[in-house]
From TrEMBL:
This is Flavin reductase family protein. Pfam families: Flavin_Reduct. One of its GO terms (molecular function) is FMN binding. Coiled coil: none annotated. InterPro entries: Flavin_Rdtase-like_dom, Flavoredoxin, Split_barrel_FMN-bd. It comes from the Bacteria. Its cofactor is FMN. Gene3D superfamilies: Electron Transport, Fmn-binding Protein, Chain A (2.30.110.10). The keyword Metal-binding does not apply. Keywords: Flavoprotein. The lineage of its organism: Bacteria, Pseudomonadati, Pseudomonadota, Alphaproteobacteria, Hyphomicrobiales. Residues 11-163 form the Flavin reductase like domain.
């Protein structure tokens, strides 16, 4: 996988794709599907995500303070839904769904080889967890799988249907105020 600067995390998440979150607690990796996330700021790159006590990953994230946000593509759509419909408490999801864990560099949670990108994160703020189940994560490292042919991501519409990315509208020449972000 090719590494990107963490300052580019917003480019991967701002469109709001459905993502996987991996955690590892006591040597046991887990994957969950997540749709409730947002970029909070560019520098340092902060990501807000909703992971509640109803999710098996919640206790691992609270205990370890780290995770990986992995971005699947449309060819993984059925796995995205199926992973979201079972609990890591009862299922070893990497094995069941045929996904390949790869070691991260800065966190114990694994990367997912089949995903287009993986963002290594650490919890930086838990003040909103008790009331809103919102963790604030700081991105520390991004790995992009340049070999992936499929690049379209999924966006959940809230009812079990998804929108798939397609055409790109290039308006970079008009982004005069934010030109420094086009590196």
């Amino acid at each position: 996988m090719k590494e990107l600067p963490v300052s580019q995390a917003y480019r991967l998440l701002e469109p709001g794709p459905i993502v996987f979150v991996t955690t590892s607690q006591n040597g046991k990796p887990n994957i969950m599907t997540m749709g409730f996330h947002m970029m909070i700021q560019h520098d340092p790159p902060l990501i807000g995500c909703i992971i509640g006590p109803w999710d098996h990953s919640y206790s691992a994230l609270r205990a370890t303070g780290e995770c990986v946000i992995a971005i699947p593509t449309v060819d993984l759509a059925e796995k995205v839904v199926d992973i979201g419909n079972c609990s890591g408490e009862a299922v070893e999801k990497f094995e069941r769904f045929g996904l390949t864990p790869q070691p991260a560099r800065d966190v114990a949670a694994p990367l997912i080889k089949e995903c287009i990108a993986n963002i290594e994160c650490r919890v930086t703020d838990t003040r909103l967890v008790d009331e809103y189940s919102m963790f604030i994560l700081e991105a520390y490292r991004i790995r992009v799988n340049a070999d992936r042919k499929e690049r379209r991501t999924l966006h959940h519409r809230g009812d079990g249907s998804f929108t798939v990315d397609g055409d790109v509208l290039d308006l970079r020449e008009r982004m005069v105020k934010w030109r420094h972000l086009q590196r």
